[in-house]
Amino acid sequence: MIEVRVPATSANVGPGFDCMGIAMSLYGVYRFTLIEEGLIIRGCPKEWQNEQNLVYQSCLRVFEHLHLPVPPLQIDIQADVIPLARGLGSSAACIVAGLLGANALCNHRLSKEELLAIANEIEGHPDNVAPALYGGLTVSFQDAGKVWTTPLTVDKKFKFCAIIPDYPVLTEAARSVLPDQLPLEDAVYNIGRSASLALALSSGNSEMVANACKDRLHQPYRKELITDYDAIDALCEKHGVLTWYISGSGSTMMAISDDENVLKDLSRDVIARYPKWQVHCIGADDTGAQVCEVLHG
Predict the structure, then answer these.
(1) Are 138 and 21 in contact (CB under 8 A)?
(2) H or E, element range at 20
(3) pLDDT in tens, 106-146
(4) Helices marked H in the chain — which ranges?
(5) Which of 36, 109, 265, 271 is deepest in the core (most CB within 10 A)?
(6) Other Cβ atoms within 10 Å of 235 Cβ, number
């Protein structure tokens, strides 16, 4: 049996639209076992316990890439901590899990760079799959079909609070509200802040994080899809977090602080007001997806 642990991811991080993401210390666990025949998938909704499952589809891509036959498999999924359509990289986690699981079954013949390329082909963009694979903060772009990514370590002083509403925001809806064109000044506004934010998170510059994590490209439009956006804004201001942003397409909102007690107080306040929501005080994961255990026999 092969066990793969994949971190949730938080994309965009404010100004880093479609290029920046952070691996978070919330993990899905995926187990792959060779069986005598067929395909068994457990731990996910029944409608996905078949060949259309994204974990399995991602496995297939590795065997196809290596021109190898697909073995009969049992896949066990424990990933409820990464909820669907909440902006925490649930699809990226499935993709990376499937790729790593299949690669382990093939004696790790593909490099991390090759796995990233396949993951990007499946997902269509690297902002979640890159941090899921590499860990930490990644800044990525695509050029002529190649994915370029720069992994950075997030300073341990920074802690995060994932505020996860009990309602989804579908990626399609989040894309549809974005304008086709933006003013040049808005593009310039984001360029400087995204570059500064990446360096500030890596170097531990709290003041820069507070000032650089601002956006004009997507959050002003996507906030309308999150019913409680203004209420969470008020709570974050009340508790004095450094900054906060919409994680991926939402609906998760991610607060950042260099004081863990600030986030604990915030989480208690959020839970009291929204008892059906999930709230996690977490850190950045600096290792990325791991093949945690290989058992034979």
Answers:
(1) yes
(2) strand 20-34
(3) 999 999 999 999 999 999 999 999 999 999 999 999 998 89
(4) 54-65, 90-105, 112-123, 129-134, 171-176, 184-203, 206-212, 219-222, 229-239, 260-273
(5) 265
(6) 22
Query: Percentages helix, strand, coil for the chain, rounded to the nearest 5?
Result: 40, 25, 35
CA distance 207 to 209: 5
Angle at 38 between CA 36 and CA 43, to 5 degrees: 105
Q: Which two tokens stand for residue 96?
A: 């990376």
Q: How confident is the model at residue 294 (pLDDT cuts 50, 70, 90)?
A: low
- What's the predicted TM-score (pTM) here? 0.94
Nearest CA among 216, 228, 226, 165 for reference residue 191: 216
> How many whole angstroms separate alpha carbon 220 and alpha carbon 215?
8
pLDDT tens per residue, range 144-190: 889 999 999 999 999 999 999 999 998 888 899 999 999 999 999 99
**Nearest CA-CA partner of 89 in 143, 24, 134:** 24
